[in-house]
Each structure stands twice: as structure tokens, then as C-alpha cells.
Task: structure prediction
Amino acid sequence: MGGLTLLDEARTAGLTVAVDGDKLVIRGPRSEDASARRLIAAKADVIAALQPKIPAAIDWEASRPDETDPRAMARWWLQRYSAAGVEPPSAMILSARGPATFRAEG
Result:
């Protein structure tokens, strides 16, 4: 059984599962001992299912558009900000959606 399937069954049974370093932390009713043992038996799959997926690195310089197109530059910067999980400056958002002029505020 895959890690996601086991986690789904465990949560349905009332178990909570977390990762602490290389250990599984399983909490819930003692009556669900069999479910906990299945989780432990598939520890590597369960930990992999609980780990966040990290996207592949993007070569931002290779994807950089021609600097004479301000809208393309604004979209490129917005993509870089969103990939990093950072809120872009409002001037960039307006520039990417609005007129073809791009002014950096700062």
C-alpha cells in the first residue's frame, strides 16, 4: 500500500501522523494499533508522502525576456516573486496588467 493510502486510512481511523526528523509520530486511539503498525512498516513511503514537494529549479536568466518589452519583463518578475513565495510590489502587478509602461517604485 502506498504512503498516501495509508495516511488516508489512518486519518479516517482517527490517527494523526507527523514527521519529527526521521521518526514518525503517530497519535490516536489504542484500538487502532494495527493501523499504526502498517504506517510504521511503510515508514519510508509515509514520510515521503508527508514531505512537501519541492519544484525543480528554474533557470531564471535563460527565461529572461527582451528588456525592450516592459510587460514581458513585469510578467517575468512576477513569476520570480511568486516562485519564491514573496508578495511582489504593487507597481509590478499594475505594470503587468495595465499600460505598457513600467516604472519601478522604491
